[in-house]
């Protein structure tokens, strides 16, 4: 297993070109947050916005729209039961994030099927939380897209059929190969299975063991894969590394880390990590 280092941040987080606009940095559509789990999709959306995605739209239960706008005016809202609107927002996205707080009832399943029916192969699709549980329970086929799963160990057990105690690198990789997807297996020292390599995250803290921490990671993976779309899987690795690097820093002075604190720290953290700008050679001296 290859250990991730902070080098991945400097590789992926590039200075923004002067000649750019919000469209340059990708569109993220997030789908989730039923009446009970609105916080999950708001945390994921906050992470996507704070990662620097150009445009973020949140498809959620109508009852969450006021809280979403109050917390995060940068995000747009759509009702996740409006199939046509969700279909067009999914089709237009660089990255779709589905699952945080989606729930696992009939409505949740209907919404998930609508998302899967409208993604295309060139798009990134982050499948998290309830969407993983529903896929496993309902034996849904994985849609054709660049799929990134972000399961915790129980969600991975449901999806892969591998019991938590038996989740070895070899067994996990065999399932990854069958799925042909990137798998971010979240735990203390998260493992990331890409097409070619298994990475281990050597940082992170039990101060992160609070509800909403994974929802925040899903939103960051969404934001990074949209903003740094040319970097492919490296954008996923950078999001995973940044999430825990920020948490470690906050945990120096706090007993626990609140998920939204990671998101709020992202803009200044990313500024510190951005790669040095290319030197401009000025020709008038020679
Ligand atoms: N504020 C909000 O709106 C929030 C909304 N949320 C949303 O809730 C939805 C359900 O997600 P979920 O993760 O809470 O529940 P589920 O998938 O049933 O898994 C829990 C079961 O698995 C077991 N378990 C064993 N190992 C484990 C491990 N390593 N990591 C985690 N669990 C492990 C565990 O064992 P136990 O803790 O009981 O010992 C328990 O039996 C999802 O959409 C999510 O986005 C949450 O994000 C919270 C904040
Ligand atoms: N002991 C720990 N050490 C490091 N990271 C942890 C620890 N416990 C949990 N985490 C991190 O917290 C997140 C939990 O994800 P998840 O269980 O999906 O949370 P939620 O669904 O409540 O948002 C993952 O990123 C995981 O790696
Ligand atoms: Mg989760």
TrEMBL record:
Keyword ATP-binding set for record: yes
Residues reported to bind (6S)-NADPHX: 40, 101, 152, 215
SUPFAM superfamilies, sorted: Ribokinase-like
Enzyme class: lyase
Coiled coil stretches, renumbered: none
Spans through the membrane: none
Keywords from the named record: ATP-binding, Lyase, NAD, NADP, Nucleotide-binding
Catalytic activity: (6S)-NADPHX + ADP = AMP + phosphate + NADPH + H(+); (6S)-NADHX + ADP = AMP + phosphate + NADH + H(+)
Positions of AMP binding: 186-190, 214
Tree of life domain: Bacteria
Cofactor(s) named in the record: Mg(2+)
Enzyme Commission code: 4.2.1.136
YjeF C-terminal domain boundaries: 5-273
Family per similarity comment: Belongs to the NnrD/CARKD family.
Subunit structure, interactors included: Homotetramer.
Function noted in UniProt: Catalyzes the dehydration of the S-form of NAD(P)HX at the expense of ADP, which is converted to AMP. Together with NAD(P)HX epimerase, which catalyzes the epimerization of the S- and R-forms, the enzyme allows the repair of both epimers of NAD(P)HX, a damaged form of NAD(P)H that is a result of enzymatic or heat-dependent hydration.
Name by which UniProt lists this protein: ADP-dependent (S)-NAD(P)H-hydrate dehydratase
Source organism (scientific name): Limosilactobacillus panis
Lineage: Bacteria, Bacillati, Bacillota, Bacilli, Lactobacillales
Gene that encodes the chain: nnrD
